[in-house]
Amino acid sequence: AQKVTQAQTEISVVEKEDVTLDCVYETRDTTYYLFWYKQPPSGELVFLIRRNSFDEQNEISGRYSWNFQKSTSSFNFTITASQVVDSAVYFCALSPGGTSYGKLTFGQGTILTVHP
Amino acid sequence: EAGVVQSPRYKIIEKKQPVAFWCNPISGHNTLYWYLQNLGQGPELLIRYENEEAVDDSQLPKDRFSAERLKGVDSTLKIQPAELGDSAVYLCASSLEYYNEQFFGPGTRLTVL
Predict the structure, then answer these.
(1) How far apart are CA A44 and CA A3, in angstroms?
(2) For the segment B8-34, what is each residue's pLDDT rounded down to a tens digit?
(3) CA–CA distance, B66 with B78 (Å, rounded to integer)
(4) Residue A13: φ, ψ to 5°
(5) In angstroms, how far apart are the furthest CA atoms of chain A?
(6) What helix, strand, coil percent values describe chain B, rounded to 5?
C-alpha cells in the first residue's frame, strides 16, 4: 500500500520569508513518481512538479525548489521569498510506475498562509 | 485552450435523492479520472477511464455510485441515493495518456442535507 504524510497541517509566514513544506512517503515499489500540486481557493489543483524514483537531483524553478531524498523517503518543497499569491493548500502525491501510473495517492495537504 | 470543465459547481440536495456530475476533459485527452475530496483531505481516486473503458474502478462504491464515459469524451458520475456522508468535492481530471500529467477541473461541491 502507498501512503503520503504531510505532517504540517497549517503554516503561516510573513511575506518574503522562506518556507519548507514536508512530505514523507511509503511505498514498496522500486519505480514510483512523486508530485506536488497547489490548490488555490478556486479549487483547481495545479501541477507543480513530478520526480521519478531514479532521479534524486534537486530541482529549482524560480522561487520553488524541491529536495528528494530516498534515504529518508522524503520529498520536501521550499518556497523562497514567499508572496501572498503563494497562499494555498499544497498537496504531495505518490504514483506507482508501470501500467498503474497515474493512480495518485495524496497527502492530507498543508495550508500555507502568507501574510503581507 | 480550455481546461477541464465541470458542472454544476455547487449542488445541494436532500439525502436519498439522486445527483449527477458532468465532466468535459481537455480536448484530445484520452484518460479521465474522478476523485473525491473530503474537507481537509487530499483527493482520493474513484475511477479512471482510458477512452470509454473503466480501467480502474476499485475505489468506486458500486452500491450507490456509477459512472460512464460513453463516447470516450465527456463523463458523468452519479450517486443514487445520496447519503449525508457523500458531502464533498468531486474532482475530475484528464491527461493525454495515462502516463502524462493530470489536469484538474474546479470540482463540484456537493452538500447533502
Answers:
(1) 22
(2) 999 999 999 999 999 999 999 999 999
(3) 5
(4) -135, 165
(5) 45
(6) 5, 50, 50
Mutate to test the interface with A, among B31, B37, B100 (most CBs of A within 10 A): B37
**Under a CB-based contact definition with an 8 Å cutoff, are residues A92 and A112 in contact?**
no
Whether residue B44 and residue A106 make contact (CB cut-off 8 A), yes or no, is: yes
A65 forms bridges with which residues in the sheet?
A60, A78
Length of chain A: 116
Q: Read off the C-alpha cell for A19.
A: 518556507
Local structure of residue B63 (DSSP, 8 states): T
Question: In terms of Cα–Cα distance, which of B4, B1, B28 is closest to B97?
Answer: B28
- Reading the block at residue A89, the C-alpha cell is 493548500
Tell me how far apart the alpha carbons of residues A103 and A37 are, in angstroms, rounded to a whole number.
Answer: 15
Q: Which residue has the cell 460512464?
A: B68
Strand partners, A108: none
Q: Taking the mean position of all CA atoms in its chain, how far away is CA A76?
A: 6
B68-82 confidence digits (pLDDT tens): 998 889 999 999 999
Nearest-by-CA chain A residue for B94: A102
**Amino acid at residue number A97:** G
Local structure of B27: helix, strand or coil: coil
* B1, pLDDT greater than 70: no
Q: What band does A102 get if pLDDT is binned at 50, 70 and 90?
A: confident
